[in-house]
Amino acid sequence: MSKFFVYTDEEELSDFQITSLCEAVGESVQSDVPLAVEYLSVSAEEIRTLNAENRQIDRVTDVLSFPTLDGIKGKKISAKDFPYDMDEEGNLLIGSIVICKQRAKEQAEEYGHSYERELHYLLVHGIMHCLGYDHMTDEERAEMREKEEQVLKKLGITRE
What we know:
By secondary structure, the protein is α/β, with parallel strands linked by helices. Helix content is about 45%, strand content about 15%.
C-alpha cells in the first residue's frame, strides 16, 4: 500500500471523498514514496482548447490527463528513479488531471447515474492514465477498466 494524494482546490468532492479515493488508489499501487496528482475542473471551452492544443482534437471532452512519468505502468515506483519529480512535501508528482464539469454532468445524466459517480470515475480514469495505463487497444482497455473498477469498488461505487 502506498500513500496517495490529490492536490485540488475544487469543492465538488468532500475532503472525506478525496481521502477515501486516495486510500483506494494507494492500495492499488506499489511505491516507496507517496504519490500525488493535481486535479482541476474547467469549463467546456477550456477543455476544448486544451484538447485541441495537446491532442489536435478540436472538441469538448470529459477528462484529460497529463502524466509526468514514463515506464511506470504496473511497476513498483521508486523515488530513486525519479529524484527530480519530487514536490516540496516529498511526494512524487505523477501528473495532472483536468475534468470538464459540464461534460461530466451531461454524461451522468446520459448514463443514468449520479454526478458524483461520474466525477469519481473520471478522476480514477485520469489517475490510471497518470499511472501509465491506456485504452488504445482492446487489451489495454480491458486492463485499464479492471484497474478502474478495482478502485471504484473499494469506494463502494459500482455501475448503477
